[in-house]
Amino acid sequence: xAELKMGAVQTQFAELIWQHEPIASGxxxxxxxxxxxxxxxxxxxxxxxxxxxxIFRNENHVxxxxxxxxxxNALQSEKFVDETFDGSLPAFIAAFTARKPLSxxxxxxxxxxxxxxxxxx
Length: 121
Known about the structure:
Helix content is 69%, strand content 8%. By secondary structure, the chain is mainly alpha-helical. A three-stranded antiparallel beta sheet has the order 1-3-2. Strand 2 (56-59) and strand 3 form a beta hairpin. The longest helix has 17 residues, at 69-85. The chain is elongated, with a radius of gyration of 18 Å.
């Protein structure tokens, strides 16, 4: 799969697709014109680039996602931890909590997630 990272404009465009999918490509052109003043070629250029990256598809003039927003965010998070903390989630959490303490509610939610992840394996 190609590079998944998106810039600010591509991210806004992706958000629009995720909010409206499945969406006819013609309707997407209209939405982009209304929202950002884009011309048809601009919309199709940005769409083509995100399709080439494997994030969206445009088949039979209908745009849908290959990756949901949650899947995209999970992949970006994994990549960040891999590149910045050598894949160590504990190192990431240690760095994160060094500057921003977790609330009791956040700690409890994390405990539930860890307990759930242990049972899924």
